[in-house]
Amino acid sequence: MKRFLRFFLGATAAACLCVSALAAASADLVRTFVYDGTLYTYVVLSGVTEPITKAEATVGGQVFPASDSLKTVRQAGSPVVEMLLVDCSNSMPDFASDVTAFAQTLAQASGENTRFLLATFGKEFTVLSEDLSGAELTDAAGSISYTATQTRLNTSLDQALDYFAALPRSGNELRSIIVLSDAVQYDPQGGVSQESLAARLEESDVLLHAVGFGSDTEALARLSGLVDASRGIHLEVGPDLTAGEAAEQLASYTGDLLVTGFQLGADSSDGGTQPVTVTFGSGSQLVCRGTSEVELPASDSSEAGADTSPDPALPPAEAADTPAPTASEPEEPSEPFQFSPTVVIVIGVAVIAAAVAAAALLRRKNAPAPASPQPSQPEESGSSGIYLRLEVLEGSLSSQATTFDLTGELILGRDSACDICFDCPSLSRRHARIFWTGSAVCVEDLGSQNGTFVNNTPVDAPQVLRSGAEIRAGDVAFRLKF
After folding, report:
1. Do residues 410 and 435 touch, judged by C-beta distance below 8 A?
2. How far apart are CA 257 and CA 72, in angstroms?
3. CB of 153 within 8 A of CB of 118?
4. Which alpha helices (DSSP H) does 19-122 contain, by range?
5. Burial level of 397, CB count in 10 A (0-12/13-18/19+)?
6. Which residues have a Cβ under 8 Å from the Cβ of 109 and sit 6 or more positions away?
7. Closest of 465, 466, 462, 440 to residue 17, by C-alpha
8. What is the pLDDT of residue 384?
9. With contact defined as beta carbons under 8 Å apart, do 455 and 469 qualify?
10. How far apart are the first and last CA of the chain?
């Protein structure tokens, strides 16, 4: 019965965290960047059943309401720039017709606001044509010569990112590289490492997709790892997927991405990389949140362009994955959305009363005297914190602390600013958070690339931890004992 009591209290704590969120909804911020004083985000929503009517971005402790309604790329007519980066090495002639078919279908399936660039790589990265129409793209792709004797894949991708960094941006355009290759790399010069390129792709405002050919599964897996770091799409042409079908899938993915903007105004940022959280709501109801990082320009202004304190009505960040658009005209976003105080009080009182009643009933049934709270699962909702001890199972811990007095939250990631930092490229910069609710220790994934698992079960929502449970994130694993 004590096990049932702990389970009930843990479930109650999780319910308190999620009373304002619609079940199973999630948000994946695929690309987030700042241009001309506006924060733009391209997002995938999944599990959303209610119309999204409001959105807010929190950057550096400041809250900014959406200045644009949430629309798909096609609905918004947002500009898209796509570079086809074709492997022209002498291992690719068998796939020349597939490359041409892909280019033709992509040009036909993409929106009218899409601009194409064509580049090749072998020993050198070369931009063949800029600002191509669909017909021009097909002709240019069909005339590629596959004779290169070296394949400097990673180096060429790094140079492609350099090219985009120097390319003047047109508003909120979505930038993508679509690499077409058998992924077999031959680079006598060594080239750019997989780890450093993956880190750059994760931070870049350019999205990487890949279409793989051939049967070298190990090479294709390395290419897929780079795509995963960029949150792009990796497809492999073969018996189950034609080049034309791959092009249609990529065009559909791009056109269905949701886009919105947040005017930052004269924010007081000193520049640099900052965490960003975007909250999506339906009326007064929180639906989901997504987290990312954004490179902010430095500002000399001391005036903030928006409310500088987070909205107290919004609960802690919810789990983030991938949502789908809902067709509804958003309400005016100028007023930050609030939860009804009456509803919050009623729900809170009801949940606490149920927990107290159940605890009292079970204690009466199991013991003549009140049971002492278990040290591993404090049951006093007013407790100020809990002592944790970290036990590393796999991975290299970069941070020094292995014991914590948890009163708020601990951030897990590879960023040196994280409370629990591992030197591991499979870990996102801000991967997950471990937090104290006042009655339980919980873990929540922060929209990481490789996910967070507790005892091999994926964390899709805030989850109550038991002392000694195995937490796995990317290639690291550890236990927290309390």
Report:
1. yes
2. 5
3. no
4. 73-76, 96-109
5. middle
6. 247, 248, 251, 252
7. 462
8. 59
9. yes
10. 21
Spell out a b/e string for 114-142, using b for 16 or more CB atoms within 10 Å of the CB, else e.
bbbbbbbbbbebeebeeebebeebbebbe
The dihedral sign for the CA sequence 201, 161, 104, 145: negative
Pair 307, 29: CB distance under 8 Å: no
The beta strands (E) that lie in 297-397 are given as: 386-394
* Structure confidence at residue 266 as a pLDDT band (50, 70, 90): low
CA–CA dist 141, 134 (Å, integer): 11
Displacement of CA 15 from its chain's centroid (Å): 24
Asked if pLDDT for residue 245 goes beyond 90, the answer is yes
Residue 255 and residue 343: Cα distance in Å, rounded?
Answer: 38
**pLDDT exceeding 70 applies to what percent of the chain?**
76
pLDDT in tens, 268-294: 456 678 899 999 998 878 899 999 988
User: Tens digits of per-residue pLDDT, 142-153?
Assistant: 999 999 999 999
